[in-house]
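Following up on my earlier thread - several people asked me to post the actual chain instead of describing it. Fair enough. Here it is, all 340 residues.
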Amino acid sequence: MDLSTGEGLLKVCLWTAALVGSLLGCLAAAGVLYVVDSLWRWAVLLPVLMLAIPLGAYFTPHTWPRYRKVLGGLGEIAAMLGVGYLTISAMPVSSDRILVVVPLTALGVGLFAWTAYGVWLALVPSWFSRNASWLLPALLAPLYFLLPWFGKLLYVLYLSLGFDIPVDAIPVTTYSFMYAGLKPIGLAAGFALFFVAVAGWARHFYWGNSSGGGIPAFLLPAVAAQYVLTALLFGALTAGTAWSEAADAVKAGRNPASYYGLSGKLMCVRPQSKDVAIYNGPLPTHRPVLTFGSTGERIWLWGPQDSGSGGARWASMSVRLEDVTLTPARPGGRCASARN
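Reply from S.P.:
Thanks for posting it. Predicted structure:
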């Protein structure tokens, strides 16, 4: 099939639309058959069976008579329904969400296939593909240093800027830093590959017919800039959102959600004596405070302090571990010494 002509490109588009539409229709019908517990669920097969006509026309030999094409399309419909039903029944998703999850999953798989083939069109053949044996290891090697650095940056945004707690005072391993940086960097890489795929399809249909036959030189710095900006922006947004949700949970008397392996807990603090040195005190004892643990002789806490005007301000404070006793908060975020 000649894709350089308008007729050939139209046939490919129709072929792809028929395949994707039939697959999504069969998945939706399989979801209805799986979820709905009534005899009326079989009515969903009527519109699906009508898809046998375009399927038979596009996916069977053109020399076949019409009835054989329709029978071939019905066989393809039956196969798609069977595979879709088995796939849906094996998915760990509640029945009320299947009709939403399955089409989105199919769309994600289709987008992944489109992106993968577009990246292949962009890089094969090219200077990158001819030197991939040494270029890929050279590009992957800095990740071992980039992931911990970027993950620590996110922890600084979450702890230092959010709770005013130093990162070095919290028990966090290098693997936690790498885990924190992996998600935004991976998402940025996905966006970068998507734009490379767009360039690959453009190269296949347009740039490949030009005199150069390659990808324009501006693409590499543009994709690199997009990669860096996406990683930084997404990382900062996720850190800010995680801090906001954690602060709301603590103020409501609940333990905050874990942030890439960093788990904060509500603890009740009781000083061992009246003469306790507290950095940025006073130390609240009527309600629990948030702590992420300690790596030394001091522990950092985050909780409410009396502002002097009848209200409370939330701030961080530090105290030596030997000067206080920390006990888990009661259900509902209460301490034994709290006034009723």
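The chain is about 55% helix and 10% strand. That should answer part of your original question.
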